[in-house]
Amino acid sequence: MIKSVFDFDNELHQMNEEELRSLLRELYLRTDMALHDKSGEAHYTQFAERQQQLFSRLHEERKLQKAGRPLPDLQHAQEIHIAIGESPLGSIKVALGKFPGRESRRFFSLNDYYGIGPLGDLTDACALQRRHLWLLERLHLTEHGSYLLQGLEQLRHLESFMSSIGEEIKVMIWYANNGHERTGLLYALHLLRHRQNPIKLIDTTALYSVLFEGSERHVLHLGELTSDQLSMMWEHRGNADPLSSEQRNLLEQEWLELAAQPGTLRMWKDDAVCSVPEDSLDEFIMEQVAKLTAERTTGEFINTARVVGEVLGSLPQAVGDSFIEYRVRQLILQGKLDMEGSPRAMRFYRVRMTGTV
């Protein structure tokens, strides 16, 4: 139920273009009727009540849509494969399709973006809402601000789903060593801390260096890998021993320490994930803008998408384009970059170093 402007904002960010048009059309018609009806204060009260009914109906329709995306049916399941993100999960499904046991295999993804934002105890509703609001405030202007794909309610239900996995079911967690996926892995293990399931970790970064020895490529995130490469990793790792109690305790402690760190950007450094201030990449972003500026005529603006792409291509970290664009907008607000255009999406505006006219 929509009880506050925060709830309404959350609903808006999950609507597609046609739903927004329909909502605005109905609001206009109702407002126009109210302006032309001179029956007095009672009518305006009725008008307000009708708007609330409209918003309530919007929320109920949204709930029905979410119900159309069912959680995995765990009946008859013998193993469940978990990935940090919907896209890599799709590759894993394809990779395992040729192996026996498809009928007893289930798949699930943690779709929050754990590489940024405050953590804390995400099983607590207040901490989860604080994180959700932080992300809404910073990413809602970006083209891929559909972090907001994950509604707050879905995130709240994550704990109950993980707790519903029968303890006889084997749990396989796939990840690469970066701030986002490692944090998601640790959180998944935290949610399973009271369960006795056999848990195996599929560290694709380490497996890539073993299976493709001699390759100069370093795997930043699981989404870089092909389904054939993932199949090879499953053949190599599928029969490995599950985590011991001692290993699980160490990983649980790693989560608790990470969740308590104050930084809001997760980076992979010295074989561990750590939280750092959100502006930690600003200097690197400015360096990439300076490099692109040197390739152009004096005073020329650079497409923001080009800047973001240059940063992502040069940065040895798996940081999403939405966050990089957010930091570009902050650098504009701080007066370090000039802007031309409208920042409603990165393809609509351009930037340059301040003072390069």
Automatic annotation (TrEMBL):
It comes from Paenibacillus sp. AN1007. This is DUF1835 domain-containing protein. It comes from the Bacteria. Residues 80-204 form the DUF1835 domain. Residues 240-349 form the DUF3658 domain.
